[in-house]
Automatic annotation (TrEMBL):
Entry-linked InterPro entries: DRC12-like (IPR033585)
Cell location: Cytoplasm, Cytoskeleton, Flagellum axoneme
Family: Belongs to the DRC12 family.
Function: Component of the nexin-dynein regulatory complex (N-DRC), a key regulator of ciliary/flagellar motility which maintains the alignment and integrity of the distal axoneme and regulates microtubule sliding in motile axonemes.
Gene of this entry: Ccdc153
Coiled coil: 12-114
Assembly with partners or alone: Component of the nexin-dynein regulatory complex (N-DRC).
Annotated protein name in UniProt: Dynein regulatory complex protein 12
Keyword vocabulary terms for this entry: Cell projection, Cilium, Coiled coil, Cytoplasm, Cytoskeleton, Flagellum
Endpoints of the signal sequence: none
């Protein structure tokens, strides 16, 4: 019994030592698990903070870009309205100038026709005058020829 008791005590000591080693290993594993969990929680929180910060930056950028887009659209609309007004004003000015040009053309046409009518009247008057002068001269020559006894129709 003594040997067996001593053997049992030795086995008991070995088992206690082994149990104590396993408990220490378990405690170390639990501590490692806790450390890993804390590290992962810290990293997760840090990642959440970074993601939130990035999200806020992106939202601010989107808002800024939307405001810029709205401003550019408004400027574009104003530019388009201004261009439309300027084109309408140009078209009105062209129409007014075309009307003035047509009126001037009609006026010049009247002046030209009036001048031509005056020239034609003067030419007709001059033609009639010269016709009369020519007839008078022809009559005088005819009389002179008859005085000399010549027939003007034969000459």
């Amino acid at each position: 019994w003594r040997d067996m008791t001593w053997q049992a005590k030795a086995d008991n000591e070995v088992l206690k030592r082994r149990l104590w080693d396993l408990q220490k290993a378990l405690e170390q594993a639990q501590e490692d698990k806790r450390d890993i969990h804390e590290e992962m929680t810290r990293q997760y929180q840090q990642l959440q903070k970074q993601t939130a910060a990035q999200s806020q930056r992106l939202e601010a950028k989107v808002k800024s870009l939307q405001e810029q887009l709205a401003t550019k659209l408004q400027e574009s609309q104003q530019t388009q309205e201004t261009a439309t007004q300027e084109l309408a004003e140009r078209d009105r000015t062209i129409a007014q100038l075309q009307d003035r040009l047509n009126a001037m053309e009609r006026e010049y046409e009247k002046i030209l026709h009036g001048s031509l009518d005056l020239v034609l009247a003067k030419m007709a008057e001059a033609s009639q005058h010269w016709e009369e002068v020519g007839t008078t001269i022809a009559m005088e020559h005819k009389e002179h020829l008859q005085e000399f006894g010549l027939n003007p129709l034969e000459i």
